[in-house]
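Reading a protein record of the kind used here takes only a little practice. These numbers are not coordinates but entries in a learned vocabulary of local backbone shapes. Here is one such record, which you should read through line by line.
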Amino acid sequence: MKMIIGLGNPGKQYEKTRHNVGFHAIDELARRLDAPAMQMKFNGAYTIIHRPEGKVMLVKPLTYMNLSGECVGPLMDYYDVELEDIVVLYDDLDLDPGKLRLRQKGSAGGHNGMKSLIAHLGSESFNRIRIGIGRPTGGMKVPDYVLAPFSKEEQPLIEEMVEKSAAACEDWLKSPFLEVMNNYNGA
């Protein structure tokens, strides 16, 4: 089974925030793959899709961003999913809106959701898709920025990146992640 995890925060007040771009990518992927309704287990919403390539689980941790690993670790253990069979989609301050970067491993880079995942999975070696949200300007603090909605000007770029990240996940179901990474990075 392959597992695709989108990071975000649960609740209506966080729905359209920059920090929830991982949830948006999972929603887009669920739409594309005609996924069944989400179920709840281990503090997360998930669904399993049966595909010709095998089973695919889409996951949205509902633990709040900083505790994402508390959902993902137990789900991986329960369903016996290996590290090389996951992809994590999340927001990245170090990439401009409209930019996407795929990586096979790396540090948390200051992202608390990734810190939690690395701590609970015991490794930095797992596939990830970083979706650019840019850095705050005008003295805005990072927590306020990531919990704010995208500007009207950013919205089309973000929608495009959500679609591209979902397409990259679809490609990963058929091809090795390194190949997908090479196709999407720099595109």
